[in-house]
């Protein structure tokens, strides 16, 4: 035994996987932060030793910016490719370009010399399927054939999408934002941001959007960008070995995702800050800004919309808004809040039904059924047949003299001689009334079908369908206000600002405000929503109407329930997510929540110098706890520190392989010096290096309000409860979440993961 105290602690050399986490476990933010600080300190001290070490330290400092550059380039490129592919495949359902089959309808007619201005959508190079197959473009037979092929293509695209997701990457379904939020709060879901998920999500997103289902590509693009972030993290040990640092990169990647989804770089940074991120230091803000900039620049270079603009729905309105119009804007906000509430409650009820009944066992059948119903009902109505982005773009547009849309079929005054831009309010023609009926039907259809579409086993975003619902409602309200102003311009509300022959009301603006209100009602975004909307449309002077609608929709929706759609899906899936915005107002104490409870077996602990390797292995085998407190002795219960289960398992396994004399009866000690043991005893095993000597502790009389706050702000995994230095129990993140659920009369067992 002589000299056992001077035994080399083999753990002085770090061994693989120590300090890592298992799947579906929560990370310890404090531990990750201190490990990064140690790493940084080591690099700084080494950099003074030689020129090579200095270069290495500079490379380490720059690695963050390099990762951001790579994320921006890849996510911008993928978004551009997705946009181009979606345009082509959406048009493929209706017809094909004869000169080059890879051209979309618009691109095909760009290159044509036979296009007239009035029939700019018609050119001999583009043929619908019926015309190509039978030679007849018009008539009942051609209509039925086009209808049949439209449904057939839609079913083929959605079947391919759901099959690829099921076979290759089950995590590629849904929007991905609830899971990204959970991962950023410190939860581990292995494979969720993997290479396969990235590849399959990109391909199936194109198929799903092209199938004509009521879903968007914006939410999934955040998931795609985060996959890119995770991919590049693995190139640098600074990020691959530290889960806390990795999450800083993922926050910035989320900003790049929104930047390319909407062409809104600043909105992307604010979205990451307001909606997705859990921990967002100032450094991450700058890096998010840079990643969003590079991503937007890359997308602009690809120019997928062919209009040399980043923005999806560029608008130019020629009249200002008036104070009296705030009333319909606020009413649209109320509609947005009510629609958000209805959608969340109905969608969560349907998703819960899918989880708990036989329905969930047939995801392919469900996708095919919903696609079939969508395609059958969408084709007869020109507003639901086209892609949702095109629909929103048309609803946002102002009616100029050159517009050929049905929505612009007004009765012109033959004596009118005015500049082209400033067209006065005119009475609506038959085309407008026809369009209003079709839009009303489209509104009902979109409201109902989106409830059943979101949450299916294919990539599905919610931004565009929500905006479509709001834009349709807004355009209908806008046309109603415009016609009232025209026919009753002597009413007191119109008298001050709407003279006869003036251009007073812009229905497109109402569509824009309605879109913002509905998106706000569903997601509960405010600041980032307004910034995304004006970046998306270029309508900078309409910030006040957008703000009024966004705030109203949030107030109305919050009156019925505080959770947005993403938080509701997090709750439904039982992810351990402690929302920073939730308030805990109950008067309970740490002693009410800690384990062990009164009738529970005593707390599983290790002693500092009297536990054998066999005892530790038995404890690990018999329990499933993530870690164990270390005490001086079982009698005194004085707390020394805390050791993680995974580290303990790896340490013993490595010791048995590398250190001679370690057997089952070897004593494990966590002290600085080895205990005094008889010479006949086997060699002891020193595991002090893996012991956390400063675990977070609270006393048994700490209010739970404080404990919840500590868990939120420090990102703890567990917290030990003591009284006068004696260990009483432990509170884990799961215990906190269960307690909060119990206090809100919810099922505490719905928190599924550790």
Automatic annotation (TrEMBL):
One of its GO terms (cellular component) is endosome membrane. Its main location: membrane. Pfam families: CBS, Voltage_CLC. The chain crosses the membrane at residues 62-86, 147-169, 189-209, 249-273, 285-306, 326-350, 362-379, 435-455, 462-481, 509-534. It is found in: Endosome membrane; Membrane. Residues 594-658, 691-749 form the CBS domain. It is a multi-pass membrane protein. The keyword Nucleotide-binding applies. The keyword Ribonucleoprotein does not apply. One of its GO terms (molecular function) is ATP binding. Coiled coil: none annotated. Keywords: Antiport, ATP-binding, CBS domain, Chloride, Endosome, Ion transport, Membrane, Nucleotide-binding, Repeat, Transmembrane, Transmembrane helix, Transport. SMART domains: CBS. PANTHER family: CHLORIDE CHANNEL PROTEIN, H(+)_CL(-) EXCHANGE TRANSPORTER 4. Belongs to the chloride channel (TC 2.A.49) family. This is Chloride channel protein. It comes from Cottoperca gobio. The gene is clcn4.
